[in-house]
Amino acid sequence: MTAPFAARVDAQSPEPGSQALIADRVVGQSLPAPFYVSQEFFDLDLDEIFSKSWLFVATEAEIPEPGDFVTINFGTRSVIVARDDQGRVRAHHNVCRHRGARLLTEPNGSTGTIVCTYHSWTYGMDGRLQYADAQAPGFDKSCFSLRSVHVRTIAGLVFICLAEEAPSDIDEVAAVVEPYLAPHRLAEAKVAKQTDLVEDGNWKLTMENNRECYHCGGHPELLNVFFPTWGYSSTDAIPDRLAPAFDRYRRATAELVDIWDGHGLPYPRVEELDTRATGFHIERDAMDLAGESFTLDGTAACTRLLTDIPEARLGRLSMHLQPNMWLHITSDHALLFSVIPIAPDKTLVRTTWLVHRDAVEGVDYDLDRLTGVWEATNQQDADLVALAQQGISSPAYVPGPYGPSEFQVEAFVNWYITMLRQRLGISAVRAA
Ligand code: 3BY
Ligand code: FES
């Protein structure tokens, strides 16, 4: 007999068929269709990936002053990321401690206190309950602070983790990436533009698409400055069509290494995408043409540089983090991407362009020139992701092989499957 009031469980075990798919994943191949199309895997991804990993959610530049906030939703979970009166970045569950109403409904804004619409319970930006009308004698406000969410800032980037216990390796990752990021002074930058693009595909297809440049022929604007050789680890694997680009890449890299060394900028590639809970990659890389920025001729889009280093030609700093971010930083601006699942076949890609806080639009930069290359690239990526989702939704789809230049796609999928296995207690059927 079942109990009349069953205890609430946060996550269900996957169905046996899904467990078998997780156990049986074939290394080097794209995933079977249910991972991309089923509601069950979508829910599992929210519970096991997005609720237990560190997630990139905002930049400090979006909440420069006390009282500034952004809200961000992962399925039914909504989080307030705010700057408190002491200037610290805080994260709280967006759920009232009275009878649970959603508190802040705007995607961003500024407020002195967080006031619940329902019965006016009022919280400070630090999450403490300040006011609750008409309570019984002895009511202790200190027992009803907002439930906090782990938050961590790294060189101006804001990460949260929804788990009770967050992966502890974030400290190790921060220690590696901070010296790369710090010279770009993102915490002191300002937002030049932010766009939200909804892609008609599963979030994993968005991530997989980002992790390779095999498809970069579809990005004519980007390819003016982004070397299509990206992802090819040895000359053996380079197709003939890429040989001229590879020659330019080698020359540009040799010149940039001198510049990076001259300014003490770290540049070696660190690749730990599927060997830890907070999988990441970071490197400084050369860019084509003028090598300064993501513009059609490669020259800086913003004349007021982000860094104090008086050198526009720095190539790009690239960082990839599992499960939901990547970034590019050039001398003049930073480009941050965060990926938020909406439905099995819908994904939000948020792109944020940062420039120096004193840079003036129309004087130091033209917004269309600053954003044009990646606005075009994002739309092209969205179209490719939609095509992938459509094909994978056909019963005719069977998983296909990754080539050598798709090694970061394999790393992403391997990280994803490894996390599901660890967090659900599922063993691999075959040895990797
Ligand atoms: O964003 C990246 O890291 C690049 C852009 C093109 C493909 N991908 C590897
Ligand atoms: Fe928020 Fe009642 S639910 S004050």
From TrEMBL:
Keyword Cell membrane: no
Named cofactor requirement(s): Fe cation
Residue ranges occupied by any Rieske domain in the UniProt entry: 54-160
SUPFAM superfamilies per the UniProt record, alphabetical: Bet v1-like, ISP domain
Gene3D superfamilies linked to this entry: Naphthalene 1,2-dioxygenase Alpha Subunit, Chain A, domain 1, Rieske [2Fe-2S] iron-sulphur domain
Pfam families xrefs: Rieske (PF00355), Ring_hydroxyl_A (PF00848)
Key words of the record: 2Fe-2S, Iron, Iron-sulfur, Metal-binding, Oxidoreductase
One MF annotation (Gene Ontology) recorded for this entry: 2 iron, 2 sulfur cluster binding
PANTHER family: CHOLINE MONOOXYGENASE, CHLOROPLASTIC
Protein name per its UniProtKB record: Putative Rieske iron-sulfur protein
